[in-house]
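Let us practice reading a record.
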Amino acid sequence: MLDIGTFNENIKKNKISNCYVFCGNDEQLIKEGIESIINKAIDKSFLELNYLKFDGNSLESFDAVVNACETVPFMSDKKVVLVYRASFIEDDGGESNKFSGDKAFNAVLEYVDNVPAHCILILYDVFKGKRDKPGKRLYKLDKKATVVKADKIRGQQLEGKIKGFFEVRNKKIGKVELRAFSSLMEDNNLSIIENEVEKLCCYVEDREITKDDIKTLFLKANDDDIFDLVNPISQKRVKDALEVLNELIYKGEKIPYILNMIERQFNLLFKVKLNIENKKSKQEIMKALNIKSEYACDMLMGQSKKFTLKQLKRAIELCLIAERKMKSSSVDEKTEMELLIINTIAG
């Protein structure tokens, strides 16, 4: 049984089987896999003639699928026949459908071993629950077809795949930098991640990759800017904080937006600080506050340690006061922001 990463690598190398069975929790990942097969196997000019789809829930027998597979492709070496919602491939699936049960599954099992060379037969079904695992039927199919488990890879497995992308490009990346890079790859699409690896390698050229390189290229600009503004505030450096504020205004950021982002940052830091004082782990903090990136969480945890809870609560109150003033009177917005920074540092 292949993971989605190995499947993608095989497709890139033109290692294409003539029968695939996809299973897993991530339907989007399954659809992307099917799309990659179609793009490799069929000329787009004749796609409608050589790509046939069947709804597994509507099948009364497997005969229609077999007939589609046996018919030779039009002006092409290959055709693709897809059966989606193929719940009959799961141990407890499709029992309410006309085409279901052991007899139906055995008909499929017998045919997948005899799919003609001109056809690529694809079946897929999405697991009903996150904890569902492949059953006996899928393992039986795995002996006769290429079964692909389409779940997003995470943790050390994801880091291993990403490290491989760097190694192919003869580029070394340290463990800390690899973890930081991996944590920022929220999409988890290996093709997109490989493009980001290429981007980073081109950016650093012949020198070593640093965390600053990763931060510069991949941390969202707005989050990065606000972090850079709050950082000198946390270190009580009024001049540096005002310089960052002026840079943001010069770049075209609107003052109400900057204020909103600062308030959001202080709120987030307050929650992170509260969790740290309650002895919560980094993983627990990420889950509780819906922080997707370990790298971003590390930065927030580090920054929160420079404030007390009382200081963060005071900073949030000052933001709300400044917001009310800007909305209710004709004050100079830039002056209000400067006073906010000064008062936050003084508090």
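A brief commentary: The mean pLDDT is 87.
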